[in-house]
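Dissemination and training. As part of the outreach component of the grant, students in the summer workshop were shown how a complex can be specified as a set of sequence lines and then modelled as a single object. The example used during the hands-on session is reproduced here so that future cohorts can follow it. Participants entered these lines:
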Amino acid sequence: SSDLYLSEKKDLVVADFCCGTGKNSLLLSEKVGTFKKVILVDINERFLEIAKKSKINAKEVVLVKGDILKADLTCEADAVISLFAYHHVPDRAKGLYVKKVIEVLKPGGLLLLGEIYLPTKEITSEYYKYLTDTIPDGDMSDSLRTFLLQTAESSDFEFKVSQDFAHTQLKKNNFTLLESKKIWPTTKKFGDDIGMFFEVWKLNTKV
Ligand SMILES: C[S@@+](CC[C@H](N)C(=O)[O-])C[C@H]1O[C@@H](n2cnc3c(N)ncnc32)[C@H](O)[C@@H]1O
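and obtained this result:
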């Protein structure tokens, strides 16, 4: 639904943090129309190569290969896309990640945040077990099962984050929550603040 917040605007400048193959920028540009500029940042060169070939609807596409925490991104973006990225940063560095978002956003700019909020190691294990059990047999493969279990137990490339931690940090940095939508699970299996969320945050002013 992020396109609803952006569809009135022209000449959008968008930064996609930890963009992977760039599919989120692609989808958003298809919804809201040609971006003036998109800046795609990822540490994985192979993902960026795929992103480069994808048909993101933008007048200018800038690829930045490297650690988002060290990236020098000078722009006045209307929106930062951060989908399943913030939790890749250890807790002690999450403040720096938020500072990077602020650095590139113009005041009033939007943070489009997709996250899996998991407060503890135990809930993380349960969450991925439930996810694995929920995926229909026809869609499950050995490699997907292995990946999900590896993700559940990972402490070197996935650091997990609770909704409380993320919300406290963003509010402290002058963001206002415009919308928070839980995507999965839709059952009552876990608490209301646990699972996959999509959120829209607005940067009020730069502090
Ligand atoms: C779960 S994927 C999400 C990709 C994309 N945002 C999406 O929603 O499809 C996490 C991405 O973060 C990238 N990544 C992890 N740590 C990073 C860092 N410190 N700096 C830049 N990119 C990073 C990975 O290479 C990967 O593409």
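The chain has two domains: 2-118+160-203, 120-156. Students were then asked to discuss how this feature might be tested experimentally.
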